[in-house]
């Protein structure tokens, strides 16, 4: 089977990248000693938008930029690598604002069947109803979490996909 256009692009662009790559000596700990939890939305380029160069930070991305699903990665970063700052960055126009858990479950049932939906009963898709409140809630959860050391600086932000600007929420 031939490679897809996406795979062909990956190989070509990687060859170009690798031909100029000179960062192979970077250590595991991020230079800025921080973690960024942000959304997987393709309109966000964390490196460019948040001033992160290769080797600067651990960037954890998931739908909605939620911290609870990212806890495993946060723990690894803090406990094994020693990061001391955590930035939660959600964004305007997030798809997680456009549906509720029930909507997602209904779509799973329509596309994958009744059994698939039954298997997900009680599953939380971590949808968002209010962007600022979601940022505050995630930051509070981290600050209250016994797994996050008290000396870790936690802040919450909103990135505006229309302007490229960030705003501190908490």
TrEMBL record:
<dbReference type="InterPro" id="IPR036874">
    <property type="entry name" value="Carbonic_anhydrase_sf"/>
</dbReference>
<keyword id="KW-0862">Zinc</keyword>
<feature type="binding site">
    <location>
        <position position="41"/>
    </location>
    <ligand>
        <name>Zn(2+)</name>
    </ligand>
</feature>
<dbReference type="InterPro" id="IPR001765">
    <property type="entry name" value="Carbonic_anhydrase"/>
</dbReference>
<comment type="similarity">
    <text>Belongs to the beta-class carbonic anhydrase family.</text>
</comment>
<dbReference type="GO" id="GO:0004089">
    <property type="term" value="F:carbonate dehydratase activity"/>
</dbReference>
<keyword id="KW-0456">Lyase</keyword>
<feature type="binding site">
    <location>
        <position position="39"/>
    </location>
    <ligand>
        <name>Zn(2+)</name>
    </ligand>
</feature>
<feature type="binding site">
    <location>
        <position position="94"/>
    </location>
    <ligand>
        <name>Zn(2+)</name>
    </ligand>
</feature>
<dbReference type="Pfam" id="PF00484">
    <property type="entry name" value="Pro_CA"/>
</dbReference>
<comment type="function">
    <text>Reversible hydration of carbon dioxide.</text>
</comment>
<dbReference type="GO" id="GO:0008270">
    <property type="term" value="F:zinc ion binding"/>
</dbReference>
<keyword id="KW-0479">Metal-binding</keyword>
<feature type="binding site">
    <location>
        <position position="91"/>
    </location>
    <ligand>
        <name>Zn(2+)</name>
    </ligand>
</feature>
<protein>
    <recommendedName>
        <fullName>Carbonic anhydrase</fullName>
        <ecNumber>4.2.1.1</ecNumber>
    </recommendedName>
</protein>
